[in-house]
UniProtKB/TrEMBL annotation:
It comes from the Eukaryota. This is Uncharacterized protein. It comes from Collybia nuda.
Length: 643
């Protein structure tokens, strides 16, 4: 009886030892998958690890780790950003009724990325001076602080999974993005530090452009893509043993702020579409290669049939947007050999985007340099001999910046602030009015009365005369070779992108005013630049302060006969300054006889300004990063693995 406790104790010890051995065996089996587990832990994939699932396998007697396969597209990313910004805009509109606002990202200082700052303005305040945040109510201040925090892309330490870092730099929160099917961690190649993300090459390239990168090497068949950023960041492709071609993303430095955070949701969408080679003609968008005389004519005719009044109006035209270029058999040969090339015709109508940094330059090749030079010199000569030009003040940009009038941004990603009638940061004489732009310009370009002269920047005027405006001149301007002291300050330097955007917009104010006048309409709501402050103020009041893009009957009534004359000419001669016909009128005004309204002089001078507009648009597109690779990927778009 006395030995029983000893035996029981011994049995207990043996049992405990057996249990420990069993546990060690289990741990050993568990550790055997440690390589896989290390690839899906927080150090490897950052906040994406919150989506991991851990399953105990009774058959294998070990814990298996599964991770959510990362997958997202450019459109999904932009939509996520849109949802966040729409939510924030809704909060601001609710709490700041009677105020206007803009957000900006100041220059970084210190060891973390800059935070978004919201500036508030009193509606109707012509000074355009931001209000002190302290003057707002406590609730309004709290709302602004909350939104600034939610929109600020603060520095997040990088992890081994470079696709995770890509999400962060786009301003997305990885743990809030949906994951697809679950994969076992043991399926990760042993040569990798983290699971990969499968992505079409076109999507990766578009993400690169959104992050302000440019292509340095592209090989479709080798699935090779290299991109490099202006500030920091890169995309590189290398062959890795046991894996194949593998792409890695190198993120932004912690003190660099991606420009996407400073864009509205509509602007980002427009930027993506421009990168893919889309043009906005009026209030409709399609790939440039699909637009032509016939397709534009179909849209314009349909809108004119459906429009119900003389004011700006949204008209649904999706049912007629399935079209092809002028060479398609469906057009039966109509206008397939126009007197005026398609490219300048489209650029004279196309929307002028405030946010765009890439475009397929290949789409512009059909309008050659000699053709542009002839068009530029012809248009400049005609205008000089008729209505004349008026140069902007030499210190215009300095005045705008010093007085904080918020007319433009001085970088290549975004040319202007969120203001005025626009869609996706796009403005154009065919689709919007320019009341807010004209009002702001009237405060920094002071005149006593409006003028019929064509506004032009002195930086560009000489190149219009000799027809040498091109991307190379823009590059020289950006390198300070052609930049004077009035084009830069302590914290800013004017860029060619913003320079060209302002010139196009000034042309558009003149074109819109001239068309309305020729059509016999009231021009109070379409004051041109430069305008005196009183005229510009009445123009803003007439517009009702409504920010809208759409269609207007008077603009279409001009556009349709203008389109036809560009395509067909007159008496087998080219009528437009943009025409490449060998037969041209000695007096350009003769080419505009027999138009349905106005005088030949009216049509000739408007055509001349539209010609210069097309040249500036072409130059702006050529200065952007070249996204022609996306055209090659439309038919064959291989998948790449992003580590």
């Amino acid at each position: 009886m006395s030995e029983s406790p000893t035996l029981e104790l011994t049995a207990l010890v043996v049992a405990l030892i057996a249990l420990v051995i069993a546990l060690l065996q289990t741990i050993q089996q568990y550790v055997s998958s440690a390589t896989a587990r290390a690839k899906v832990n927080r150090a490897a994939i950052g906040t994406w690890s919150s989506k991991n699932q851990y399953i105990w396998s009774l058959r294998e007697w070990k814990l298996r780790v599964q991770y959510a396969r990362p997958k997202f597209t450019v459109d999904q990313a932009v939509k996520r950003i849109q949802n966040l910004q729409e939510k924030n805009d809704g909060k601001i509109k609710k709490e700041l009724s009677g105020y206007d606002w803009v957000w900006s990202v100041p220059e970084s200082s210190g060891g973390e990325r800059s935070k978004v700052e919201i500036s508030v303005y009193q509606l109707g305040d012509e000074s355009q001076k931001p209000l002190p945040i302290a003057s707002l109510t406590r609730r309004q201040r709290a709302t602004i602080k909350e939104i600034e925090l939610s929109m600020s892309n603060l520095y997040v330490p990088p992890c081994k999974a470079t696709w995770h870092n890509l999400m962060i730099d786009l301003g997305l929160h990885p743990h809030k993005l949906p994951g697809t099917d679950l994969l076992d961690a043991d399926t990760i190649a042993s040569a990798l530090d983290a699971p990969t993300m499968s992505m079409p090459m076109s999507e990766l390239i578009t993400f690169g452009f959104l992050l302000d990168m440019q292509i340095t090497k592209f090989d479709l068949h080798e699935r090779h893509i290299d991109m490099i950023g202006n500030l920091s960041g890169s995309i590189t492709t290398r062959h890795q043993e046991g894996v194949g071609m593998l792409v890695r993303y190198s993120g932004y430095d912690q003190t660099d702020q991606p420009f996407v955070i400073d864009c509205s949701s509509e602007e980002l969408d427009m930027s993506v579409q421009t990168t893919r080679g889309w043009l906005a003609i009026g209030d409709s968008q399609a790939q440039m290669m699909c637009w032509g005389y016939n397709s534009v004519n179909r849209v314009f005719t349909t809108v004119l049939e459906r429009i119900t009044n003389d004011k700006w109006e949204g008209v649904e035209v999706e049912d007629v947007m399935d079209f092809e270029d002028d060479s398609a058999p469906s057009w039966e040969g109509r206008w397939n050999q126009p007197m005026t090339p398609v490219v300048p015709f489209l650029l004279s109508f196309a929307g002028n985007m405030s946010v765009a940094n890439a475009f397929p330059r290949r789409l512009l090749e059909d309008w050659t340099a000699p053709e542009r030079q002839l068009a530029s010199t012809s248009a400049s000569k005609l205008l000089q001999n008729t209505v004349g030009f008026i140069d902007t003040p030499k210190d215009l940009f300095k005045t705008i910046t010093d007085e904080d009038f918020h007319v433009f941004n001085s970088h290549d990603y975004k040319a202007c602030y969120q203001y005025g009638c626009e869609q996706g940061g796009m403005r154009g004489w065919l689709a919007t009015n320019f009341a807010e732009f004209t009002l702001r310009m009237s405060k920094c370009w002071v005149v006593s009365e409006t003028t019929a002269q064509v506004p032009v920047l002195p930086h560009l005027h000489p190149f219009f005369r000799n027809g040498t405006l091109d991307a190379a001149l823009g590059a020289k301007y950006n390198s300070t070779l052609y930049r004077n002291s009035n084009d830069q300050g302590e914290k800013w330097k004017m860029r060619a992108n913003s320079l060209l955007w302002i010139q196009i917009t000034m042309f558009d104010t003149w074109i819109a005013h001239r068309i309305e006048s020729m059509m016999g309409n009231d021009t109070v709501g379409d004051a041109p630049v430069p305008a005196d402050l009183d005229t510009a103020t009445r123009c803003k009041v007439e517009s009702g302060g409504v920010e809208i893009s759409g269609w207007k009957k008077s603009r279409l009534s001009f556009a349709l006969p203008y389109l036809e004359r560009l395509a067909e000419g007159l008496n087998e001669k080219g009528a437009s300054c943009m025409s490449t016909s060998k037969k041209r009128f000695a007096n350009p005004e003769l080419g505009w006889a027999d138009m349905p309204v106005g005088t030949p002089h009216d049509w000739a001078v408007i055509d001349a300004v539209l010609t210069l507009r097309a040249i500036v648009m072409a130059t702006r597109y050529e200065m952007m990063k070249d996204s022609s690779a996306l055209l090659d990927l439309q038919e064959f778009d291989p998948t790449v693995q992003l580590a």
